[in-house]
Design goal:
The protein is of the alpha/beta class and 202 residues long. The protein has a six-stranded mixed beta sheet, covered by helices on one side. It is globular and about 50 Å long. The termini are far apart.
Length: 202
């Protein structure tokens, strides 16, 4: 499996092109991602969204049109793609497939899992392909996604971190912002973030 990444827009949102068995998956094409993506794919099969925030979905519609491929979005976050109170000029996009929590999807033998970790957004998910996690804004290197946005939920994030703590395997983690890390590296901080969140909602 080959992974290419490029930070996009003012928020430096990581856009990923993942090549597996001659198929390419585009993950979180943010602001200005279209040209970079087109230059780095030869057989794209799908656009995959970790969640619905504008800086992760900005180029969805443009790439759907340019490449003629479907968009897969967590069901609970689909409403974000229609409009953004932060960015009124967000180009709206329409998912071709609404992904259920913890759903696995097979693309001609390549399994893609959407692992549901709500809190940052209702549908916030980690996309798992082989030995890689694309964690969006759930987990970053030594940090977690913010829970003070509209539709964020600190109680959901606590449950998601408890679910994350219980994972027994290790994989490389490619977050929506910043540098890669691993599951095991970030699990050591999970209790700290849970405690911080619990204090914030007392």
């Amino acid at each position: 499996m080959q992974i290419k990444s490029q930070p996009m827009g003012a928020y430096q949102t990581n856009c990923y092109v993942v090549k597996k068995d001659d198929k390419e998956f585009i993950i979180d094409p943010g602001v200005g991602a279209t040209q970079w993506v087109i230059q780095n794919v030869s057989n794209p099969v799908a656009i995959l969204s970790t969640h619905g925030h504008f800086d992760h979905v900005w180029s969805n519609a443009e790439l759907q049109k340019e490449l003629g491929i479907p968009l897969y979005t967590p069901k609970a976050d689909a409403f974000f793609l229609k409009s953004s109170s932060w960015m009124p000029d967000l180009p709206p996009s329409t998912p071709d497939y609404l992904v259920e929590p913890d759903e696995s999807i097979s693309f001609e033998g390549t399994e893609v899992k959407f692992l549901h970790f709500p809190g940052h957004t209702p549908g916030c998910s980690v996309i798992e392909i082989d030995d890689a996690w694309f964690s969006g804004d759930f987990i970053f290197k030594q940090s977690i996604g913010r829970v003070d946005f509209p539709y964020s939920n600190p109680k959901d994030m606590i449950q998601s971190l408890q679910k994350f703590k219980a994972i027994t395997y290790d994989k490389k983690v490619y977050p929506g912002h910043g540098e890669p890390t691993t599951i095991k590296q970030e699990q050591q901080y999970a209790n700290y973030w849970i405690e911080q969140l619990q204090r914030s909602i007392v």
